[in-house]
Amino acid sequence: MLLRNVLLLVLCALGAILPGRADDGYRLWLKYDRVAEAGLRQQYQAAARFVASPDNTPVLRAASAELRQGLSGLLGQAVPALGAPGTHTGGIVLRVGTAGNGQLRPEGYRIFPENNNLVISSPTDRGVLYGSFALLRQVQTRQPLAGLRLSSSPRIDRRLLNHWDNPNGTVERGYAGSSIWQWYELPERLDPRYTDSARANASIGINGVVINNVNASARYLTPEYLGKVAAVAGVLRPYGQRVYLSVFWAAPKVLGGLPTADPLDPQVQQWWATACNQIYQQIPDFGGFLVKANSEGEPGPSDYKRSHAEGANMLAKALGQHPGVVMWRAFVYQAGSGDRFKQAYEEFQPLDGKFDSKVLVQVKNGPIDFQAREPFHPLFGAMPKTPLVLEVQLTQEYLGFATHLVYLGPLIKEVLEADTHAQGSGSTVAKVVDGSLDHHALSGMAGVANIGADRNWTGHLVGQANWYAFGRLAWDHTLSPRAIAEEWTRMTLTTQPAALRPLVAMLQQSRSIYVRYTTPLGLHHIMGESIHFGPQPWLAKAGRPDWTAVYYHRADSLGLGFDRTATGSNALALYRPEVQKLWGNPATCPLDYLLWFHHVGWNQRLSTGRTLWNELCTRYYTGADSVQWLQKQWAAARPALDPATYADVAARLQTQQKEALWWRDACVLYFQPFARQPIPAPFAPPARSLAEVKELVRIYQLK
Amino acid sequence: MLLRNVLLLVLCALGAILPGRADDGYRLWLKYDRVAEAGLRQQYQAAARFVASPDNTPVLRAASAELRQGLSGLLGQAVPALGAPGTHTGGIVLRVGTAGNGQLRPEGYRIFPENNNLVISSPTDRGVLYGSFALLRQVQTRQPLAGLRLSSSPRIDRRLLNHWDNPNGTVERGYAGSSIWQWYELPERLDPRYTDSARANASIGINGVVINNVNASARYLTPEYLGKVAAVAGVLRPYGQRVYLSVFWAAPKVLGGLPTADPLDPQVQQWWATACNQIYQQIPDFGGFLVKANSEGEPGPSDYKRSHAEGANMLAKALGQHPGVVMWRAFVYQAGSGDRFKQAYEEFQPLDGKFDSKVLVQVKNGPIDFQAREPFHPLFGAMPKTPLVLEVQLTQEYLGFATHLVYLGPLIKEVLEADTHAQGSGSTVAKVVDGSLDHHALSGMAGVANIGADRNWTGHLVGQANWYAFGRLAWDHTLSPRAIAEEWTRMTLTTQPAALRPLVAMLQQSRSIYVRYTTPLGLHHIMGESIHFGPQPWLAKAGRPDWTAVYYHRADSLGLGFDRTATGSNALALYRPEVQKLWGNPATCPLDYLLWFHHVGWNQRLSTGRTLWNELCTRYYTGADSVQWLQKQWAAARPALDPATYADVAARLQTQQKEALWWRDACVLYFQPFARQPIPAPFAPPARSLAEVKELVRIYQLK
After folding, report:
1. Phi, psi for A143 (deg, rounded to 5)
2. Across the interface, do A189 and B651 touch by the CB < 8 Å criterion?
3. Burial environment of residue A496 by CB neighbours within 10 A (0 to 12, 13 to 18, 19 or more)
4. Could you tell me which residues come within 8 angstroms of residue A495 by beta carbon, excluding any fewer than 6 positions away?
5. d(CA A395, CA A162)
6. In terms of Cα–Cα distance, which of B474, B494, B473 is closest to B482?
7. Which of A467, A609, B35, B112 holds its CA 20 to 30 A away from the CA of B188?
8. Nearest to A699 among B224, B533, B658 (CB)
9. Which regions in chain B score pLDDT beneath 50?
């Protein structure tokens, strides 16, 4: 032990003089590089001389190992493990128990000084794990440790990453390489990434992982695959994460050989009950099921004229006494049945009160599909008897893949803060989701994962910030996206103030910039067909009308936008009167949502003083120009950044700029013949023709 | 410079005392870890005090940089760069020129002592690059440097890696993660992997890369994508590699808007000529085209009743004066036109002499499709007027994906040494391919790449050995697979003799073990439908008869095997009489090929003294048991291995063992009802039923 500590000390000392290796991003925000400021480092050293932990559960062992690994790196000193502090002082003490923790939820933690030590205390070992990461975060972000007092509990219970990973290793809508799950190697080989993803998740409070795509394969329910899933569960368990599965509704047919998958069929019910028992034999803490049914071609209870509630409740009953839950997705829309905006509401709202107590309904943040900006989904606030899981998308399906820098903290926060007015002003989506508005015991929030086997996990480095922000907001939705961005930047990139300023500014502005050059003023769903890359506002024919672009933007000689007021589809009527009032009048509707709800004349003057056409052009042009501003912020931070990291993001910003101009030119050139007006001064008309831009789009549709 | 050298020295010294990090395999065989043996290291140090290079071309700069990087790591001393040696001695001198190099091909090199320096000399800078890697290999494998004299020239001109990588980042038949080519990031961002893949290729003499799948997308010929391809070409060029493209035959239609892709249509010809000019404007050293036409659904000249020669020649003419070539694949087979074995021959052999001088015909090693063992393709030796490219598959489509340890050196060598008897005994496939038999100016060998974005490039570590062996054999087909295996093992794993012995033994035996437990005695094409994973000898219905298993094994109550003699399909008649004589008689036909050519009675006694049924069972059982032998060899080498590397392969061997038993049980249980005999002693019948094994196979076919 002594020799090991000496070696560690030598290593840490060397850390200071060795030239840094290129940072490949693999370590995410858990870098643990030595604190460069000597004075600060000494303060930390004095407060973290050891970690005392009973180490009597796998989770506590993971917590104390992480603390020692992190602190020894950060402080440049060996941090030995003790069973109990005894008379030692100046160290960290891990403690599981209820004493003094009456205000905490089970996963909450407190950090406080006691006998010249810092105690991390929680009713559960998982809470201690979260507290340990919180303490590390203090050091990583250069906050003081001495006398530290922190108390925190998660506001939402199930904080889940949803992987859209397929059994063949591809990731639906993934832009960071192949899946991290290596199904052909499991259960014998456990890729080190499983552990590192679990560490990252634990550090931000994520406590569950749906490991397979909602367009699900039946094979996960076979004994062969359950063994593989159990092996993954074993890696994730010490990090406080449960495994969940997306299920294929027709599994009783393709696996069980039954003639039906009707949820009211006793044989089907028995098949699922047996499947659940088999799962729990192998995975005693299995989290439950996520279901995409009767949506985009997936089978479901409607195939047998049963409701979503009948389907979900059958699964809930099959789970029986097992602790799992059913998360039933509300992402449904039938072809040709009117405004797609309204369909999930129309199908699910009447089912409120009909779901089993183990069922949560999982609702996307907006009514269409993860657009760069959407009004909040009208189901929030409309199903008070049903716990609703908020589903947000971290992978940038509609937000520029891995070549656009888009920090999603503001997007997620915007949804959480949206006021449903369900029980009067202040009935935010956050309060619906965390269960406080309607007093639900269950609550959940899901982020569609943006991680893959790319070395840096997310392709674009800032994708890491989106993973990070999701976890932090799911834990505590009152946090500000700006504070989260700064936390992440400090932990991931630099703590130098001169660099922090431009970096946090660029993160904060990035999403609104993206909206401006792609879908300003409430435009939506005008991206490339199927692939969802690049602009394609001219798309008029597709497998279904609501897969085209013209269905959504409705450009004509009079104006632009989808009339969802009473003179149109009347989707606005799904919202509370207060919301209707705000959004229903084009004069008061925030410009960000204008074309979501109104068909606005080209020459209509907006609150900015410009006509619609001029405002539209202004946003496309200034949006695209703002990518240069992003580049300037990145360049300003360069002295503080790892060179490889700098070069990587700088190159992606170049691509982003090129693609922003592509969006701008495509959209203004396409809409111009409807508006029949020139590009307003001072903007120069695009140098290329619409045909040229269209050809550029077509390339990405080629076989 | 001085400070840098001091730092390097410090770093190297530290290398010895720092505890090793887990080896993640990324560095491949170019590890450059310090030589542990002090005496040997001192000898190397005395011979490599500097690298003198004019550094007047990018290739020379790459060569001298690699030498300095490699030697400074291996020798633990700074290795400075000099422009010319001057009066310095004890160093490495790079020299481009013809003096003394009359016996060398352009890419050949000589290494020899001169004035107490070691000179690496070649007519070209590329030859110096190859010589530099050869010198590094000397040190990596612990051969002496003092007085070193080496001379080597490649026997085959175009040594190409064929990537089957799709524009969306997937890899057809890839088992090592997503594509290393990041098309959405190009040309702005150049992933560091491009450089590292080029270094690895250069180190084994690979001089060209077909970067996209033969099932090709048209988009690579668009200006947008040519810019991306040019950026890749720019990274590969200093490492002596040219970029080639697979082309989509219908590109003139989908890109050019022409009504036809008929190769005799003047507009089509003009379109391709223009495309070639555009390519060469951006990539002056573009290597040429690879074409899969009228095969497995791809369009081609037959759509217009033109021959493959007419198609290939049109492309050759379009290339005009540009230096590129056309590699036209002979992998064609029409549904329902008799024995698939014969079809490529029947379609291509009559075209011999009709191809343009810029055309090579690319032929897979065997007549079916990259089975674990195939007789050599009958086209070898049958098209003397046409240069033939030998195509082998490194990615283990039919060889256990990334969970089976299979070293392919023996497979590739077996093909190269196969005797076509085209011009009498000794007319090996190697001599056909290297052009020496028929005096061709062009020659080529292609390996279907097994690399992806997995951290260790190939998924299974031993996949690296297959990449390595391909390059070495394409450079010099007279090398022995055993020597190559030892080279690779020394460079990649360990130089400790006690570990080398079991490691090289396991590599050498691995492919024959795989054959024994999957397709012994000449069985072929009995693997899982479409996915090609696991056994499926019962497959009797598929999109085409020649996609089933029963088409190939022909099991019935009488016996097993495909009669390809005159009493059957007579495919044997495609070979020279000497070959026919050897293989046509079941008594003399090597057992490895027996069921390729004969329908053999279950009770027929073989040269081993056993009946067919008993021999079949013996091979399945001893083959599966041999995986335990592989595990023992790996375990024996453990003390010499990096722990992470050890654990990774050990886990994969566990999976392999499980899957070997799966193959064994599936095959003996399926064939047993035909043979109507018990499993012979001393082997115990499988503990599971055929139905259970089938279910295991079915899982991998589930959506």
Report:
1. -90, 155
2. yes
3. middle
4. A141, A142
5. 10
6. B473
7. A467
8. B224
9. 1-20
DSSP annotation of A155: S
How many CB atoms are closer than 10 A to CB B65? Answer: 17
Whether residue A275 contacts residue A323, with contact meaning beta carbons closer than 8 Å, is answered with: no
The closest alpha carbon to A361, from A400, A407, A316, belongs to A316
pLDDT for the residue B337: 66
Number of CB atoms found within 10 A of residue B682's CB: 7
Q: How far apart are CA B242 and CA B160, in angstroms?
A: 9
Measure the CA angle with vertex A82, ends A78 and A87; round to 5°.
105
Q: Which of residues 185-244 of A touch B (CB under 8 A)?
A: 185, 188-190, 192, 217-219, 222, 224-225
- Report residue A389 as tokens: 């899981």
A516-526: per-residue pLDDT in tens? Answer: 999 999 999 99
Give the dihedral of Cα atoms B608, B610, B616, B618; nearest 10 deg. Answer: -80
Catalytic entry in A369, A434, A486, A546: A369
- A618 near B CB under 8 A: no
pLDDT (tens digit per residue) in B188-198: 999 999 999 99
pLDDT tens for each residue of B463-515: 999 999 999 999 999 999 999 999 999 999 999 999 999 999 999 999 999 99
Q: Which chain A residue has its CA at the smallest distance from B531's CA?
A: A168
State the Rg of chain A over Cα: 26
Q: What was the pLDDT predicted at A335? A: 62
The answer to whether the Cβ–Cβ distance between B454 and A454 falls below 8 Å is no
Residue from A166, A185, A458 to probe the interface with B (highest B Cβ count within 10 Å)? A185
Q: Which residues pair with B17 in a beta bridge?
A: none
SS3 B362: strand
Contacts of A269 (CB under 8 A, 6+ apart): A263, A314, A317, A318
For residue A263, what are its two tokens? 């949820």
Beta strands in A163-269 (DSSP E): 208-210, 242-247
Sign of CA dihedral A169, A172, A178, A179: negative
Q: Which of A17, A219, A654 sits opposite B702 (nearest CB)?
A: A219
- For CA atoms B614, B616, B619, B622, the dihedral sign is negative
Whether B184 sits inside 8 A of A703 (CB atoms) is: no
d(CA B167, CA B218): 10
Q: List the Cα angle A5/A8/A11 in 5-degree steps.
A: 155
Catalytic residue list of B: 296, 369, 397
